[in-house]
Amino acid sequence: MKPEPTNQIHKKAITAWRINGFFTSLGYWLVPVGYALVAWEGQWPWWPVYLVSGLVILNTILQASVIPVVRWRHWRYQIDENEIDLKRGIFIVRRTLIPAKRVQHVDSSQGPVYRSLKLAKVTIFTAGSIHDIPALDEETAEQVRILISKFAREAQENV
Fold it and tell me: Which tens digits make up the pLDDT trace of 17-28?
């Protein structure tokens, strides 16, 4: 059996995922607030507001504190001349092997949160799918992008 990948993404991924989780959770707050506005004017019961608010608070706490840490602990990758090995997942663990000869091109990108934390995401494109290695520091992302591109070029020349 192939050994587990050993490279870990940057620890700042936790902060980035916490920020994204918090802002994603804000959208869920529209449900209890909207219901409360309707219930205020009419004869609707208030217990659904309390129930949904509790669930939204729990979701916000999980998305902005617990899940990012657990997610970071379980994200691993490994790159060699033959393949890219990605392992991620909390409840459902996904392990992806991308043959270097199947790689069509590689990108790196930064959104506003990643840019503020000096992180980047490396995206690997094959004919049938797209794979990401999230939250690498900018220098590592550049090195990974170049390394994958080099291995893909070499693998296609050897075919």
Answer: 999 999 999 889
